[in-house]
Design a protein that fits this description.
By secondary structure, the chain is α+β, with helices and mostly antiparallel strands. The chain has six helices and eleven strands. It has a five-stranded mixed beta sheet, covered by helices on one side. The chain has a four-stranded antiparallel beta sheet with strand order 3-4-5-6, covered by helices on one side. Strand 3 and strand 4 form a beta hairpin. The protein starts with a helix and ends in a 6-residue tail after the last strand. 27% of the residues are buried.
Amino acid sequence: MINTKSLIQIAVDEVIQQNFRTTQQYLKVHSLVKTNEIPQISRIDTDKNDGTVIVYFSLVNYDYYLSVWINTTPKLEIRSVSIEAGNQVYLSVTSEGATLQEILNTTTIKPTKKWNNGDTIVGKRKYRTSGIIFEPFPEKADELEDKVEKLIKELYPHKNELTKLSEISELCIKIKYLGYKNEMWGWHINNETLTKISELSSSIDFDIYAKGPDLQE
């Protein structure tokens, strides 16, 4: 069983002591978010099958993270330090013709956001569609591929409902990638996930952002 306290201590020690050159480079141009002078951890990712743990540290003014990768076998040790993009992945359902109630009547999915055509957005702006958002994993600190797969796992049991829903509305899986301009990584969506997405009658939209300061030698 993974000792969470030990993981946290190892990760915090690294971002404070900066033993890795990559840590030094990143923190030369970024600042860690701190609470009572202690670096703030956004997430401890234990999803990997090989036992690798990723500790995500929040950075001031940015939606990407300083990430400490830790091996848990054969012993607890840091493998690497990197910048990992923040991600948002969710299902958007919108319709110009159907009402919000008609959308809700077609699916048992519990939306995390919903609105009706004509509702106010901000100021005098109003929605021109009715719709819902389903974002079961709102935390940005995660690998994009993992978050896509987790969303599809949540949606797949509802595929028959979603097929019916697609007849009165537009379904789109929205993927927002919030990256560091000096380290923009590609991603891979496997065949199984793509097949399931097609069975959900959904399109995919990628929204890519690149921000941050230049690295210094």
